Amino acid sequence: MTVSNEEPGGSPVVRVAGGSARRTEANAVADAAREAAKAAVVRETGPTGATSLEPLLLVTTGAETAFYAKPSLDRVADAVAAAEAGDRDDADAVVEHDEERETLPTPDDGPLSVGRRRALARCGWVDPTEPPAESVAEAVRDDPEGAREAMRTLGLLGRGRGDARADRPIAEGWEECREADGDAVLVVNANDADDRNRTDRTLSEGDAASVVDAAMAVAHLVDAEDVVVYCEEESRATERLSSAASRHRREHGDGPQIAVGPEMYIAGEPTMALESLEGNDRLEARLRPPGPETHGLYGRPTVIHTPRTLAQVREAILRPDGFDADDADPGTRLVTVTGDVDDPVTVELATGASLRRATDAVDAETTKMAIVGGQFGGVTRRLDHSVSAPALAGANLGTEGVVELFGEDRCALATVGDRARFASEENCGRCVPCREGTKQLTNLLRDIYAGDYDDDMLRELTRTIGNTSTCDFGRSAARTVGTAMAAFETEFEAHAEGRCPSGECDTRAVQ
């Protein structure tokens, strides 16, 4: 399938790119473009990942696309009229490209120029439900064993906390599933209620058809009888994935089922996702072993992957030259930069790239600290770590694909205290180390404000919670506190003396 960037007769194509964070504004821009268009065709696409630019108006005439970031409605009308007249209004950027380009052309500077767009290549450029020109599902049907062997050799790791093979080789999980008794099932875990992390959401909203295509390919490779896409209730990503799945069924006679789960942080944990899919009102983490690959959904062998993992599988099979089997973490990783920034941005980096490279996509003032890895990421003063999973794990940072930046006025103790409280309130309650340990952790942090800083007890408690909890929620819940103590020991001591070096706690007390 070829994407036409110019309609017959030379009429320009106008695209409006935007995600759920800018949905209302994007709808207004699209309506203004349609009202202004006489010959141009207006298409609504998905997010580019660069929220700071959205809604983004893209006006393509032949082999050239003009970019207009967050345009006023008057500017939309002027840009469309100018393009139809064979002219170009004053654009923020202009990119020349092939006339039949199927992926988003990117300017030489700005947030879209950061990193390499492979998994994100179609996001912002195509109808999110439009099947990709190259179908990986069709490709693997010709030589499934060759594809399996290629993935075994490559050693591709799972991406994201919702993946049952997170930071572990996925091909090993596939083999376990294929060798287990029972009819296999593939679960696409697209339920992530952590608003910090926009990686899977960007893929699901911006290129849902490729997610579905990759899911059908993996289902074939693991001999899965069923494919279930597990999403949040009433989200834009769910709408797009549902439409893409329906389109796939109409065109191929098969396709994924769509199931929704609660908008709860714990609902994205792989085994709690299975509990939700089975209709259980109380979500609790399952003991492992056995893992989902041998005993998953309704006892069936189950592979659980995130959209990010599926995007890597798709690229690895269709474009293997971009992957190095000698790399400890082959491929690319999606990273959302958020925190004390005007607008979050999701970029795609080679796993050998530095985390600092991701921050080039945002306007951030002086940064005191960063939390790398989402809700329960690790606190660090430095961003010169590689984005690869082994490098981040070695630095006791998270691999979930989030870098939060915090300015000088942010308090390390208050920040990690909020997350410890979240862990104590939102855990599933199944295991004692997480259920009781996070309560003790929260209380010990509160005691610091009263002048009692028991650093030895805090360190022992974070170690115990991390080493003995049942699931990744508990194993990572104390990491934020432990890494903050290592990076900001003097701030913890200052609070015990009645001082907040950043002044944030004084402001909170007044409020």
Automatic annotation (TrEMBL):
Gene3D superfamilies: 3.10.20.600, NADH-ubiquinone oxidoreductase 51kDa subunit, NADH-ubiquinone oxidoreductase 51kDa subunit, iron-sulphur binding domain. SUPFAM superfamilies: Nqo1 FMN-binding domain-like (SSF142019), Nqo1 middle domain-like (SSF142984), Nqo1C-terminal domain-like (SSF140490). It comes from the Archaea. It holds the Pfam family NADH_4Fe-4S. One of its GO terms (molecular function) is metal ion binding. Keywords: 4Fe-4S, Iron, Iron-sulfur, Metal-binding. The keyword Ligase does not apply. InterPro entries: Nuo51_FMN-bd (IPR011538), Nuo51_FMN-bd_sf (IPR037225), Nuop51_4Fe4S-bd (IPR019575), Nuop51_4Fe4S-bd_sf (IPR037207). Belongs to the complex I 51 kDa subunit family. Residues 94-103 have a biased composition (Basic and acidic residues). Signal peptide: none annotated. This is NADH-quinone oxidoreductase subunit F. Residues 1-22, 87-114, 240-260 are annotated as: Disordered. Residues 413-458 form the NADH-ubiquinone oxidoreductase 51kDa subunit iron-sulphur binding domain.
